[in-house]
Amino acid sequence: MPLPRLMKTEVLDSKNRAHLNRAVDLLRHDRLVALPTETVYGLAGNGLSAAAVKKIYEAKGRPSDNPLILHTDLAEKARHLFCFASAREQERFELLSKAFWPGPLTIVGTKSSLITREISAGLPTVAVRLPASLVTQNVLSLLDFPLAMPSANLSKRPSPTNGAEVLKTLEGRIDAVVMGEQSAIGLESSVVRIDLDEVYMLRPGAITPSSVGKILLEPVVFAQNSSSVAASPGCKHAHYVPNVRSIIWGDDTILAQSWRSNATILCRNKDQVNAAKELGSRPKTALTLALGDDPADFGRFLYSALYRAEEKAHESLIILPPKEETEAWKAALDRMRRAAGYQ
Ligand code: TXA
Ligand code: MG
Questions:
Q1: 1, 17, 23, 193: least CB-packed within 10 angstroms?
Q2: Alpha-carbon torsion (329, 332, 335, 340), positive or negative
Q3: pLDDT tens across 100-152, in order?
Q4: CA 170 to chain centre
Q5: Contact in structure between 199 and 217 (CB atoms under 8 Å)
Q6: DSSP readout, 63-114?
Q7: Which residues have a Cβ under 8 Å from the Cβ of 176 and sit 6 or more positions away?
Q8: How far is CA 97 from CA 76, 84, 234, 294, in A?
Q9: Which pLDDT score, from 0 to 100, does residue 343 have?
Q10: Nearest residue to 73 via CA among 131, 20, 21, 17
Q11: Contact at 8 Å (CB) between 268 and 293?
Q12: Neighbours of 77 (CB within 10 A)
């Protein structure tokens, strides 16, 4: 059942100075504003205000055991949000923030006393990221607090990669959205944990474990493969599910069977080209979402494709995963699996 609309959501233009000042003013008053980032759009609120953080959980319908990421515009500001428990933890932070910020890497480390229970869902750690979007950096530079920013979608729904997709699920539930550019990466940040003996990748993203390992000169373990360290709490909840009749995890046989049907098919360009060669054209009314052949392109368009599939809500959606399970495909594959209902 759709959640009720509670307020008018202001639509602000990222190129308009007065509009950005309005966003800053709203954030200073514990209100919620969706902002662009290079990964996905985020739902921003004052990360040090219990009232603003509570509103974020309410607007998204987010389970309270799923902690939020704090965002800053300077590594110096980020450092104050941690209280590193060892010299190695601090050294890892310095190396990673220098190598990957601004960018799609979230660092989880021992939290400082500034961090409230609400942000970290009671965990001893805090997650922090410095986003690359200049619009959002600009907003952050005018604030004297970090912004908590989960993806700007209702809980369980696909993450938004533009302002229009934010409005699809949050219109009437947040104070404003800043309409900026399409997110260039399109998948949420990689989440890396640095406070334990070993370094763990808690959520796959554009920055791979091997690129983190090269900077730290130590191995990085995927939490999903570890018996002792849990993946990010968010990874256990249902996610990215589009509103369609049913979602099917496809293979070549299912693709062949459904090619002439009206089902929506999400695949790589080369799968579409090969199937068309063998099986002819699809019905004119059928939607084929071919997202490119390279993992970066595929990731960039994945969430928009899930929202486009909703235009044919009465049809099934067949997701045809790439056959390669290389490190570069890991993040897109992870989100596709979750969209299809696998954990
Ligand atoms: O790219 C991103 O990270 C986007 C943009 C807006 O910055 N934000 C984002 O936030 O994806 P959200 O709330 O959708 O995902 C946050 C993830 C969740 O999986 C959460 O469990 C994890 O980060 N997380 C947050 N704090 C954590 C902590 N202390 N320990 C482990 N995982 C944590
Ligand atoms: Mg999210």
A1: 1
A2: negative
A3: 999 999 999 999 999 988 899 889 999 999 999 999 999 999 999 999 999 99
A4: 15
A5: no
A6: -TTSPPEEE-SSHHHHHTTB--SSHHHHHHHHHHHHHH-SSSEEEEEEB-TT
A7: 9, 10, 11, 12, 22, 23, 26, 31, 32, 33, 34
A8: 10, 14, 23, 27
A9: 64
A10: 131
A11: yes
A12: 19
pLDDT value of residue 4: 66
Helix spans in the chain (H)? 17-28, 50-60, 75-79, 87-100, 117-120, 134-141, 163-170, 209-216, 252-258, 269-279, 295-309, 330-339
For residue 1, the model assigns a pLDDT of 53
Enclosing H/E stretch for 316: none
**Is the pLDDT assigned to residue 233 strictly greater than 90?**
no
Q: How far is the CA of 42 from the centre of ligand 2 (A)?
A: 9
**Segment among 226-240, 285-299, 308-322 with least mean pLDDT:** 226-240
pLDDT score, position 85: 97
